[in-house]
Design a protein that fits this description.
The chain has 8 helices and 4 strands; from the N terminus they run βαβαββαααααα. By secondary structure, the protein is of the alpha+beta class. The protein folds into 2 domains: 73 residues, Glutaredoxin (3-Layer(aba) Sandwich); 110 residues, Glutathione S-transferase Yfyf (Class Pi), Chain A, domain 2 (Up-down Bundle). Strand 3 and strand 4 form a beta hairpin. Bound molecules: glutathione. Glutathione (GSH) binds next to helix 3.
Length: 198
């Protein structure tokens, strides 16, 4: 039995959605960062945390990679060129989208007030929009980032696009990336993962 710790309003949604796609059994503990329940599993206080056979895995990408490898789904096999290319895309999404959103969040409400730079968000928004525009070329011939199969970087990118909407980052609605996002979020597993109010 798997246990996922973290609310769907956090990066835990990536894992929640993947668990729904896999159709496996899991327990979901909704707990905010740094709460006693989270600290019990991750001394850094961050979510998501994931418990498998009494062992804890932290970091959404590490958890998704573990699940993909164990279940042989949503990933190219480890040790193949396809996997290296998929991993490169995963890391690009972290650099080009997750890191910008996280920096914006840190300067909005995470860092102590005296460490925040309130003007940085505009620069991050500009860079995010430029990166999204560039990524659009990926979808000319492909349904998903790596071709015709949903893989780990798709979970990541679609989550980041939802996060961007909440953080009021603009991405042109009528764009290749947003067409892709609308297609993917229509999947029943994504709808199930986000239907919780937790
Ligand atoms: N790279 C990590 C980032 C984890 C992370 O920073 N999670 C946020 C919530 S989405 C958190 O717990 N923040 C509290 C903190 O940074 O102290 C992942 O993908 O899981």
């Amino acid at each position: 039995m798997y246990t996922l710790i973290g609310s769907y309003k956090s990066r835990a949604l990536r894992v929640l959605w993947m668990l729904e796609e896999l159709g496996v059994e899991y327990e979901h503990i909704v707990a905010p960062p740094h709460s006693p329940e989270v600290l019990k599993h991750n001394p850094a206080g961050k979510v998501p945390a994931f418990v498998v056979d009494g062992e804890v895995i932290t970091d959404s990408v590490a958890i998704m990679t573990y699940l993909g490898d164990v279940h042989g789904q949503f990933t190219a096999p480890a040790g193949t060129i396809e996997r290296a290319q998929q991993d490169a895309m995963t890391l690009t999404i972290i650099d080009d989208f997750d890191a910008l959103l996280w920096t914006a969040a840190k300067h909005s409400f995470v860092l102590p007030e005296e460490q925040r730079n309130p003007t940085i968000k505009e620069n991050l928004k500009w860079e995010f929009a430029r990166n999204a525009e560039r990524l659009g070329a990926r979808f000319t011939d492909n349904e998903f980032l790596m071709g015709d199969q949903l893989t780990i970087p798709d979970f990541l990118l679609v989550h980041c696009m939802g996060w961007a909407r909440v953080a009021r980052f603009d991405v042109v609605r009528d764009s290749a990336v947003m067409d892709y996002v609308r297609r993917v979020i229509a999947r029943p597993a994504y709808q199930r993962a986000t239907s919780t109010t937790a």
